[in-house]
Amino acid sequence: METILGTPSKTGSIYKVENGYLGLPSMNVPGVDAAIGDSLTHPNGSVMSSGFFELKASEPLIYTYECDEMKVVIKGEFILTDRVTGEVTHAKERDVLFFPKGSEITFETPDYGLGFFTAHGSMS
């Protein structure tokens, strides 16, 4: 088990990470206040990774997915635009999203958004 952010523990076959959303590293995109980081990567040899994505009101973030990913909005909301079709959706707390590999998405938020993601591979 590799933990990038947070405090890990293991009880039997159960892996747990506390505070994996704290101290997320910046995505370093000029004008965009966004951060992302893995909390748990490849537990027990798995190909799965998970972590948190945070966006504050700023310039839009344009992101291309390098692997299939699912995201749950934990706090706030995201405005998502599919850059290929131009279609827009609003995702609020507890909404579940799926982004296929290769998706080009514009992320915006009116104030703040925090999402938990799980992906087939590492996001770091």
UniProtKB/TrEMBL annotation:
What is the name attached to this protein's record? Ethanolamine utilization protein
UniProt source species: Arthrobacter oryzae
Specify the superkingdom: Bacteria
Record's Pfam families?
Answer: EutQ
